[in-house]
Amino acid sequence: LGAVNGLVPHFTGGRLHGRVSVAGRDTARHQPRDLADVVGFVGQDPEAGFVAETVEAEIAFGMEQLAVPAATMRQRVEEVLDLLGLVDLRRRPPHTLSGGQQQRVAIAAVLALGPAVLVLDEPTSALDPGAAEEVLAAILRVVHDLGVTALVAEHRLERIVQLADAVVEVRRDGTVKCGAPAEVMAAAALAPPVVQLGRLAGWRPLPLSIRDARRAAVGLRQRLADHAPARATAAAGEPLLRASGLTVTSGEQVALRGVDVDLRRGEVVALMGRNGSGKSTLLWALQGSDPHRGTVRTAAGVDVATLPPAQARRHVTLVPQTPGDLLYLDSVAAECGRAEDDAGAPAGTCAALLAAGAGDVDPATHPRDLSEGQRLALALAVQLCAAPGVVLLDEPTRGLDYRAKEALAATLARLAADGRAVLVATHDVEFVAVACQRVVVLADGDVVADGPTGEVALASPTLAPQVARILHPGRWLTVAEVAAALATPAAVAP
After folding, report:
1. Around 422, how many Cα atoms within 13 Å sit in the side-chain half-sphere?
2. What are the strands of the beta sheet with 149-153, ordered from one edge?
3. For the residues 129-146, what does the mean pLDDT come to?
4. pLDDT by residue (tens digit) across 51-93?
5. CA–CA separation, 352 vs 356, rounded Å?
6. 424 near 349, Cβ under 8 Å?
7. Taking the model in full, what pTM does it have?
8. CA 122, CA 107: separation in Å to the nearest integer?
9. 225 — phi, psi (to 5°)?
């Protein structure tokens, strides 16, 4: 992606062989500033690029740098505010928005420049399903109506592959395959559940959308009619953390309204809800950082908000949306050593936790040079050195591919098996279907649903994973459940 707007090699260094041409301009001969009028780039961390005090000023900033006439600028600001549903946020400071709202503002600021090529790095990673659909629909409108070329890097293939005109697969060995989506996905190493299910069932042509998969799945639904999903359920452990009447306000804005929630031993719980529903606020309140009304108590009756940070981490720990915020030393070994010293843990504890979650990682590597999955695994290992009973994670699957998500799911399962309680705030319905036994749904600061994943996910079109939508009215959530059923004799569901 960086080669498209000249970041590679002008800011990254290295040797560039071959040629990248955008609107007739060789990116090796033009600085990114020389390409700003034809290439719009939105990175993974939108907040890092904000410079203005309000949303509408942020959208106008890029146009000011390109000397767009004031009348045109004003019109474009209004157009993109409507296009991405930001009208109500126009006077809000960008840093006060949720992660998903910030993503939409960053996209709007780029679209306002009227680029010929729109380059987006994981544009839906922080968005809830509804907001992601809105953003992708807006991108499609720009592509179809204005003739813009959109190049989108995205690990959430289930959201976008059916919309693509072409797929470029960058493989681990550095080779690249480009072609029609169905052709590339038929053999791709990483594939969304709809493709995995199509491969399992042997469907030809391979469907990429829910609609096409449902048409192909008539026979499969009949084969599964006498089977019941083999689904693990959480052991009924005692609550390790209990919140009662939890209320958080900021000025006149109420972020949480009298929330009651229990986190039980041996359970992985998903915290879901649209952007701005209060998920991150709830995590920080449970961790003891956010001022709140109501009570948050551990199984021993301890209020972690009253403890010094070092002691609080022994009860409840939190990995934030950007795990790198917890990492500040110049090597993996240094981070592990400091974490062990702070927690009073034996030498090698952090390294062992990291290896369990990410495999072999060179201890001399700088944390900034790790992959997203490795950086998350390191941050989690650092926090786990204190052996907390409750582990909170905020959007941990951002930037992770399907393999990294499988590794994370295995890590969370081990934590639960060790007797911990895990709460994961996420928009990733596919990850929830695989990794979580229970789902808590927030809306406008209130808990609106709390129950087993199968019940909550299957009751909501928004939260249902791809397999559930394809095989409805069956009760299936994952490809693994279907594969297990097809490999065993029919068993009539009770």
Report:
1. 31
2. 39-42, 117-121, 149-153
3. 84
4. 999 999 999 999 999 899 999 999 999 999 988 889 999 999 9
5. 6
6. no
7. 0.88
8. 11
9. -60, -35
